[in-house]
């Protein structure tokens, strides 16, 4: 049903690499990728994203940011965004994708995951914990 899942944030260096890694760990038989609406193309995951993820046993060292494209949207069966503004961005530019775009926080009242870019490690840790819980909420719907 949902064989290819795309996770979308803004720069594809802070939140979406973490959510991608969490989904990959939980769903090893699915294809999971991430992208940004204003991606810092080619950049690795932000150092604090890498550090917090490593603290929890996830390695983001191979991650490279990519831009969300129409092709990527077509290939994805499900697109999970980290905040409502990313969903709105996709809906405006790619209305044909509307039915497959949902917030990662859908099962918690369409909860946004705040962008920790430029903040300190506690903000990244809080985001990690929030995304880990939101991924767990999705698992019954994805297996």
Structure description:
Helices cover 41% and strands 13% of the residues. The protein has five helices and four strands; from the N terminus they run E-H-E-H-H-E-H-E-H. The mean pLDDT is 97.
What secondary-structure arrangement, pairings included, does this model have?
Elements: E1 4-9, H1 15-26, E2 31-36, H2 47-55, H3 70-75, E3 78-81, H4 84-93, E4 101-103, H5 121-142
Parallel strand pairs: 1-2, 1-3, 3-4
In which range does the helix fraction lie? Answer: 40-55%
Low-confidence stretches: none
Strand content: 5-15%
Helix and strand run: EHEHHEHEH
- What's the overall average pLDDT, rounded? 97
Separation of termini? 9 Å
Q: In DSSP terms, counting alpha (H) and pi (I) runs of 4 or more, how many helices?
A: 5
Q: Overall 3D geometry?
A: globular
How would you sum up the major sheet?
Answer: 4 strands, parallel
With strands numbered from the N-terminus, the spatial order across the biggest sheet is 2-1-3-4
Helix/strand structural class: alpha/beta
Number of strands: 4
Rg, alpha carbons: 14 Å
Descriptive labels:
single chain; four-stranded parallel beta sheet; 13% strand; globular
In short:
The chain is an alpha/beta fold. The chain has helices spanning 15-26, 47-55, 70-75, 84-93, 121-142, and strands at 4-9, 31-36, 78-81, 101-103.
